[in-house]
Design a protein that fits this description.
The complex is a heterodimer of chains A (about 400) and B (about 280). By secondary structure, chain A is mainly alpha-helical. Chain A has helices at about 5-20, 20-40, 65-80, 90-100, 115-120, 145-165, 190-205, 205-220, 220-225, 230-260, 270-295, 300-320, 325-335, 335-350, 360-385, and strands at about 55-60, 85-90, 105-110, 135-140. Chain A has two domains: about 5-45 and about 190-385, no CATH class; about 55-185, abc type-2 transporter like domain (abc type-2 transporter like fold). With about 280 residues, chain B is α/β, with parallel strands linked by helices. In chain B, β11 and β12 form a beta hairpin. Classes of the chains: A mainly alpha (about 400), B alpha/beta (about 280).
Chain lengths: ~400, ~280
């Protein structure tokens, strides 16, 4: 392999990204605008305010020997800045407000809530003695962000109430570490969305690669390069490098923009590096999809349209958008490489998981395998059908 | 050229094949050997039911400026594309610079420069960047790359505009850039496919001078054109192709004399009953 050839082709592609307005928009401006738009809508842009959710709490355990449990639970909920807790005396009124959109959720605390908690503490290791009960949580199905954000927050507060992240009033015989849950009081909706935005921006490389190859083919530039000693391997390596560089630029830009709008993930240098690696590998996957598109498409216009066959499912099923879909759609999302990128970045950024976490390693392996297959298939198809 | 009834004996020296007509032993000792740069042997190329090149055979000597003439669809560009290794022949063989193009395309691509008929330049790069890109693709040493780029840009009148993006160039400037990109690496063999088409007269004469200079440097040039005056001005020999077949071969003066015509256009008319330009 001749590095002079590869580096000259990479430089050529990077100049294209900067100098062609359409490419510049898709690779640089689009992720920046996307991040700023989402940050402005769902984050803390312009100040430290977080989005708040109106939640009705119907406490059915207003009296009795165990009522302190439900009171603690409601107090803990009230401490969450993201939530605006309103006490309702009956479920019907709360449900009426939910239907009218005045509130985003109704939480019904059952009458045996305290008894259930107490039974847990009486026999923490013997589930057969526990009094099982269920918190009823009704969510506004029209608010996809409420459906995503509220359940984990309630779960966290419940855990804190039971185990005591503020363990002053409740002695805890069970020793467990602080749950690696998010600090909901500082979390905005944007924090949930940010990992998906990293994948979201990179997905569009499929379109830029497909357009680039079809345009160069239409203008006879691929044939012309083919009259030089440049080998197909050198050419494809240059494409891989330039598109990985583009993905890294995107990640850096998205991260910088996200930081500007107040995004502060729990991440160290190692995690940050891994995030870059995952997105770079995902970029190769999209280069492969771009090549497959270019092999099918007869013109650059057709390539733009066909590229959405790969972009749309990845976007809707694999990134932050997918979390609000039906269970079956979420299962379908697991066939999208973007799902694993989003999941890995969520684990890193939101859950603060270490890089050696099995979930992250599994995600990284899946993305690597799919990217390898996609790239190989793309090269083979383009060589067979895409050259002319 | 091979004469009827003669034997061809060949061996390879360096990258060029030595061909000596052996009509008699005495002739061999008296003649200086000719170096053959390109050999096309019974070449045929079919695209489904269309035969673009039909049993074409010819040889081009090293240092020769050879013109391929013929109307649109005659098979000129297809022949060039096969010689460059872009297309596979249906049958027959082509040998460029001593290498079979199908077997050693890598070796062939190291010694050729190709100027395609349709201008193929990266519009978002400057003229200089386009030229340097192709010099880099031929792995030229940096100093030589810089020198050749400057020299060629100057010769073809693009030096002052070299740092402008090609998208801002006129059609003629693009075509000159197209030509420089093919020749910046100083190739032994150049394939120039209609290099002056759609150029103004001034630019065309500048390119003619440039092509003549290539000949002085002993470069082998295959030139396709439909400008008869261009072929007469530049070419040592021409091959006239029609419907994929070679219908005439020789020096322009030789052909005009043989067919008793004033120019090559009339030669084509005599051979086919049609005008080349009518086909354009």
């Amino acid at each position: 392999m001749n590095f002079q050839r590869v580096s000259s082709l990479v430089r050529k592609d990077l100049k294209k990204m900067i100098r062609q307005p359409a490419t510049l928009f898709l690779i640089v401006l689009f992720p920046v605008m996307l991040t700023l738009a989402f940050g402005a809508s769902f984050g803390a842009i312009g100040g430290t305010q977080s989005a708040t959710y109106q939640i009705a709490v119907v406490n059915m355990e207003s009296s009795g020997p165990y009522q302190q449990w439900s009171q603690h639970f409601v107090e803990n909920l009230t401490h969450i800045e993201l939530l605006n807790i309103q006490a309702f005396s009956d479920n019907e009124t709360a449900q009426a407000d939910l239907i009218q959109g005045k509130i985003q959720a109704v939480l019904v605390i059952p009458g045996n809530f305290g008894q259930s908690c107490d039974s847990f503490w009486t026999a923490p290791t013997n589930p057969s003695l526990w009094v099982n009960t269920t918190l009823q949580l009704h969510l506004d199905s029209g608010s996809m962000f409420a459906t995503q954000a509220i359940p984990p927050i309630i779960q966290q507060v419940l855990t804190a109430t039971l185990y005591g992240t503020q363990p002053i009033s409740i002695p805890t015989p069970i020793q467990i570490g602080s749950p690696s849950l998010i600090q909901a009081s500082k979390t905005t909706m944007f924090d949930y969305m940010a990992p998906g935005i990293f994948a979201y921006a990179t997905i569009f490389l499929t379109m830029t690669v497909a357009q680039s190859f079809t345009e160069d083919r239409e203008k006879g530039l691929l044939r012309r390069i083919n009259t030089t000693p440049t080998t197909p391997t050198e050419f494809m390596i240059s494409q891989a490098i330039s598109n990985m560089a583009a993905a890294l630029i995107q990640v850096a830009l998205v991260f910088a923009m996200a930081y500007l709008v107040g995004y502060r993930p729990y991440i160290d240098v190692v995690s940050f590096t891994l995030a870059f690696i995952i997105v770079s590998i995902f970029a190769l996957c999209n280069v492969g999809f771009g090549l497959i598109t270019a092999a099918i498409a007869k013109s650059s216009g057709a390539a733009t349209g066909i590229s959405f066959i790969f972009i749309m499912p990845q976007m809707f099923l694999g990134t932050f958008v997918g979390a609000a879909l039906s269970p079956s759609a979420q299962v379908a999302g697991k066939f999208m490489p973007s799902y694993y990128v989003t999941d890995a970045l969520t684990s890193l950024f939101l859950r603060g998981a270490p890089v050696s976490s099995p979930t992250i390693l599994l995600d990284l392996s899946v993305v690597t395998i799919i990217s390898g297959i996609s790239l190989l298939l793309g090269i083979l198809l383009f060589r067979k059908y895409g050259k002319t | 050229m091979k004469s009827p009834g003669s034997l061809i004996c060949s061996w390879e020296i360096g990258i060029f094949k030595q061909v000596i007509p052996l009509s008699t032993t005495l002739t061999v000792s008296m003649m200086s050997p000719k170096e053959v740069a390109i050999t096309i042997n019974n070449l045929t190329k079919r695209f489904e039911d269309v035969t673009a090149v039909d049993g074409l055979s010819l040889e081009v000597e090293k240092g020769e400026l050879f013109g391929l003439l013929g109307p649109n669809g005659a098979g000129k560009t297809t022949t060039i594309n096969i010689l460059c290794g872009l297309l596979k022949p249906t049958s027959g063989s082509v040998n460029v610079g001593g290498y079979d193009v199908q077997k050693r395309p890598d070796k062939v691509k190291e010694m050729i420069g190709v100027c395609p008929q349709d201008t193929a330049v990266f519009s978002y790069l400057t003229g200089r960047e386009n030229v340097e890109l192709f010099a880099n693709l031929h792995a030229m040493p940096r100093e030589k790359l810089k020198k050749n780029t400057e020299d060629l840009l100057k010769k073809l009148g693009l030096l002052e505009e070299a740092n402008r993006h090609v998208r801002k160039y006129s059609g003629g400037m693009r075509r000159r850039t197209n030509l420089i990109m093919a020749l910046v690496h100083d190739p032994e063999i150049a394939f120039l496919d209609e290099p002056t088409v759609a150029m103004d007269v001034q630019s065309r004469h500048a390119v003619w001078d440039f092509i003549k200079e290539l000949k002085k440097q002993n470069k082998t040039v295959i030139l396709t054109t439909h400008y008869m005056e261009e072929a007469e001005e530049l070419c040592d020999r021409v091959g006239i192709i029609d419907h994929g077949k070679l219908i005439a071969l020789g020096a322009p003066e030789q052909l005009k004399s043989k067919f008793r015509t004033k120019n090559l256009e009339e030669v084509f008319i005599q051979l086919t009953g049609r005008k080349i330009r009518e086909e354009l």
